[in-house]
Amino acid sequence: MRRLIENRFGLLALVLVALGALYGVAFVSRPAPAAQARPQAVRAPVESVTAVCPAPSGSRVSVVTPADPERPETPGSATLSPIKAPAGKSGKGGDDVIDRPGLLWQREIAAGGGPLVVDATGSMAAGLESAQTARETSGTQRGLAGVRCVEPGAESWFVGPGPAAAEMTLYLANPDAAPANVSFMVYSGEGPVLSERGNGVVVKPGQHRVIRLRDLAPSPLIMALQVSTRSGRVAAAVKAVLGEGRGVDWLPAAAAPATRVVVPGIPGTAGQRELYVATPGDRDTSVRIKAVLKDGSYALKNKETIEVPAGSASSLDLSTGIGGQPAALVLESDVPIVAGLKITGTGVRQDVAFTAGAPSIDLGSVVADGRAEGKQTSRLVLSAPFAAATVEVRLVPTKGAAPDPVEVKLPAARTKELKLTPPKGSKGGFSVVVRPKPGSGPVYGGRVLDEGAGDGQMVTAQPLAMARIWALVPPTVDSPGAVLP
User: Fold this and answer.
1) Among 77, 109, 315, 403, which residue's CB has the most CB atoms within a 10 Å radius?
2) Which residue intervals make up region (Disordered) (predicted)?
3) DSSP class of residue 75?
4) DSSP character string of 356-401
């Protein structure tokens, strides 16, 4: 043993054996490692909302924030004011202030003036919805024309008639504190259209612009319009005036290009139904069409597909396939597409309405303006294209007690149309709140408002949009990239 210790190589071997024994004991006796849970996105209530009513002059403006017992109550208010530079925002001086969730606020806006900005914070922000609806009985503007007040964003899509078929007007507004550098692209039946007058404008903070699309692209009979910003955000809306006795309405914002698009909210009334589909990319496509009706989902006979060349738009008359039936359309393609549909009313003097590709209302949806006054009727068209669904429908009147919510079951691949009637004793308009029940399949829908008139039906439509109730806040993790260049 002494020789082994005196031998330097033997000493090294003893040290290695001792270290190995210590490591073995430590390895056997070490505690189990703590499980590292992956950070998850957190669902947080929306605390601030800004929306712009693009041209409320002569219209009824409706604003509502549904009451929600599951949402924490925080101080808040919604302010309606004419658009102005951020330095001029005071919240006073004639601005309308709403501070009670669960009540529908409505007001007729006098003719003249520009866009209205709805700014909401705290408990008035989560779920806030606003809309403007105009009603004219004569002239080129005869008809019902409604639009959801829009949030400023970086990109918007619109699909419908082109400037050669109607007077198409683009409304831009910038309620933010930074300028918006806005560009446009028009896709027509012949392909992309680049304007000789330029395809971009700068919208300064607090500024709004009204642009005739005929000045940008005078020739298209049908079109898809892309409005995008290279910097800043802008609220964009498009109005279509087809001419004396031919109808008027706003184009709803369409869902961004995707390989599967659902066009919901098609009412069960008679009249023409014209589908518009555009392919912004550089590949031709054959778009497959299925109609989701009250008795099932079908490929329409002799209208199973529509061919759309690259970078262009196409249209297809579906009147003989879905006319007179509440419906939704499911469009599938190998390349991303955008889509919309024109709804034409009946009568000697026609009116039009538009719906467009829309997302499913997984978090629920709110429609600010519903009516049942005189000969006006509000309908809710709900579809469950892929799986059975159950939703709760609740009305919020301007006055009187709200009725009990109604549960609506939607079998898979079916569409239902509901006539919305406020309770007896309530006066004025009402808003509509739609919430899928837990475990429900995807639900798509739209609200249709029509009015019988001696010279022809007046109609407007609005696809259901996802309610702004909750936001998914991404997880935060430590990273040197936050401070290193």
Assistant:
1) 315
2) 57-95
3) -
4) E-----TT-EEEEEE--STTEEEEEEEEESSS-EEEEEEEEESSSP
The two structure tokens encoding residue 381: 């068209």
Half-sphere exposure (Cβ direction) of 37: Cα atoms closer than 13 Å: 4
Residues ≥6 apart with Cβ < 8 Å to 3:
10
pLDDT digits (tens, 9 = 90+) for 197-256: 567 899 999 999 999 999 989 999 999 999 999 999 999 999 999 998 899 999 999 999
Q: How far apart are CA 436 and CA 397, in angstroms?
A: 21
- Token pair listed for 97: 């202030």
DSSP string, 453-465: -TT--EEEEEE--
Nearest-Å Rg of the Cα atoms of the chain is 28
Backbone angles phi, psi at 18, to 5 degrees: -65, -45
Identify which has the larger pLDDT, 311 or 90.
311
Chain-wide mean pLDDT for the chain? 88
CA distance 361 to 12: 72
Query: From residue 285, how far is each of 160, 291, 308, 310, 480 by CA, in Å?
Result: 19, 19, 5, 7, 45
CA–CA separation, 382 vs 25, rounded Å?
A: 67
DSSP 165: T
CA pair distance 421, 430, nearest whole angstrom: 9
**Backbone angles phi and psi of 457, in degrees to 5:** -65, 140
* DSSP tag of 100: -
The tokens of 45 are what?
């209530």
Provide CB contacts within 8 A for 417, sequence distance 6+: 267, 268, 294, 326, 379, 380, 381, 382
The residue assigned the tokens 């000697």 is 348
Q: Measuring CA to CA, how many Å separate 319 from each of 270, 327, 344, 362?
A: 9, 12, 10, 30
Inform me whether the pLDDT recorded for 10 exceeds 80: no
Determine the Cα–Cα distance for residues 173 and 79; give it in Å rounded to an integer: 17
Range scoring the smallest mean pLDDT among 65-79, 86-100, 132-146, 401-415 = 86-100
pLDDT tens sequence across 272-292:
999 999 999 999 999 999 999
Domain spans of the chain?
Answer: 42-472
